Give the backbone structure.
Amino acid sequence: MLQFAKPAPDFSLPSTDGKTVTLAELRGKDVVLVFYCYDWGGI
């Protein structure tokens, strides 16, 4: 379970250039995650 003011657990996501990026690789940097619906349908 996530807890306020605690470090986020490590995870990986595909980047816009097709590579995989992990949260651990970005430690110490500002990180913004943007999620959106690919099919532009109702959510």
Remarks:
- The CA atoms of residues 10 and 25 lie 9 Å apart.
